[in-house]
């Protein structure tokens, strides 16, 4: 639950409002209807949908979803699961009353434990989840390319952990890391340059795939 919550919040704050719900939906669907976590995720999903429609100037859809999201979040603690639920409710109240308000103000950032996180704040595995759902969200990207990039990045991290096994605690992977690790973070985090990042990522993946094919062919 907590990992999915952080991934969706990070994706939303990076500007991929519609894609954020994909991080929450798989966790939300099996929950008992009306349970606090179910209402939280349901409300956040509808909040992201309301913002998405408002950004597309679908005022009636935005207002309707804002009202629905408020109802799901109404009885939750203002900081349920560490999320700024109270602030979200206040934003939704204004959006429901005046959907065009969204043109005059940026969407309210979602916070967890007081931090408005984005994909660069995630662990590598959570950043990989964000990259995977973004690749599935947009037709311009091949999910298999991003899946292989994540696989190669994990191999890089495994090699690093093996090389530093006796050197104490392992460091946390981050966006400025070289190789596939850094590119996966970039793809998840840099919405404005994502197409350029993807082109670079795809070129590296294709080279690695070619190397793998050449190596496997040696023994056939």
Automatic annotation (TrEMBL):
InterPro entries, sorted: DUF309, TTHA0068_sf
PANTHER family, sorted: EXPRESSED PROTEIN
Superkingdom field: Archaea
Gene3D superfamilies: TTHA0068-like
Designated name of the protein: DUF309 domain-containing protein
Pfam families: DUF309
């Amino acid at each position: 639950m907590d990992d999915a919550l952080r991934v969706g919040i990070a994706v939303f704050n990076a500007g991929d409002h519609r894609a954020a719900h994909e991080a929450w939906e798989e966790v939300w669907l099996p929950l008992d209807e009306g349970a606090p976590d179910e209402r939280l995720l349901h409300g956040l999903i509808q909040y992201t949908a309301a913002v998405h429609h408002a950004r597309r100037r679908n005022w009636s859809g935005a207002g309707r979803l804002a009202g629905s999201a408020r109802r799901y979040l109404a009885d939750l603690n203002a900081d349920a699961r560490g999320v700024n639920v109270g602030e979200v409710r206040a934003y939704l109240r204004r959006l429901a009353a005046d959907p065009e308000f969204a043109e005059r103000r940026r969407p309210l950032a979602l916070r967890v434990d007081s931090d408005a996180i984005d994909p660069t704040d995630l662990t590598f595995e959570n950043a990989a989840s964000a990259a995977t759902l973004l690749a599935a969200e947009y037709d311009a990207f091949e999910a298999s390319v991003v899946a292989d990039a994540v696989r190669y990045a994990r191999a890089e991290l495994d090699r690093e952990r093996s090389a530093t096994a006796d050197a104490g605690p392992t460091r946390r992977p981050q966006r400025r890391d070289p190789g596939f690790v850094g590119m996966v973070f970039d793809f998840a985090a840099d919405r404005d340059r994502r197409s350029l990042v993807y082109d670079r990522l795809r070129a590296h993946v294709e080279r690695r795939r070619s190397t793998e094919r050449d190596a496997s062919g040696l023994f056939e």
